[in-house]
Protein: NAD-P-binding protein
Organism: Trametes coccinea
Amino acid sequence: MSPTTRPTTWLVTGASRGIGLELVRQLLASFDNLVVAACRNPDKATALKGLKGSSKGTLHIIQLDVSDFDSIRAAPKQLEPILGETGLDYLINNAGIASHDTAFTMDPEEFLQVVRTNAAGPALVSQVCLPFLEKGHRKVILHISSTGGSLQSAVGVVGARYASYAMSKSALNMLTLKQKAERPDLTIITLCPGWVKTDMGGKEAQLEPEESISGILKIVTSVTNADSGKYLRYNGEEIPW
Ligand code: NDP
């Protein structure tokens, strides 16, 4: 990047490990990117902090717990000195938790915590980031969802399991459509990263994080406003709602 060019700006939630960490790692391979990596415990995010020395892009780490609404509402104070001038080009709502319950065994408090983290959190993060997105050049919001949130596919894929998780991702998908309806000037995508080898995906998963994330970044950097409201897989296939 020449000294006069503005960087492309990114905010990734849940950046301490797994898909979020790999997103940040790949983004930082380019001098053009400025990445705000949000995690709930920056002190413990050793792998994330380790990217600082080796990266070409610029890394800023902020504290953000997406299940804590006060923490989200406080985020603009941390973001203003970093993104105040440039705005935000890409918001990636990645942080998420899973549940191993079924419809007839679920604990309603756990269900609410999963929905709080996976759907209400991304909704509020999108709200507080809106002024920064409005200033940005790309105006893209990417929600990391799951095929588990698809009304047509979820039961076929995992049967009765992951009930709270599936419902939370359906809510996230609906958030995508409602955000698009309200703000047609933004480009909002909901995307399944595939079954990825992370703490959540487990060792048996099909994809290495590198492959999933390079697919995700190809998609998110090439989407146009005409793609807003799409439900995609990491390889660009459309997922039935
Ligand atoms: P991991 O469990 O490996 O990592 C989850 C990340 O989310 C961690 O960085 C964790 O932070 C963060 N996180 C969890 N809760 C919060 C919170 N309240 N506030 C801030 N950060 C939080 O999961 P993956 O990387 O695999 O998953 C990332 C996303 O991809 C999720 O939304 C998941 O649903 C989705 N996904 C993953 C699939 C897979 O196969 N792996 C398949 C389909 C979708 P901390 O270190 O602090 O716990």
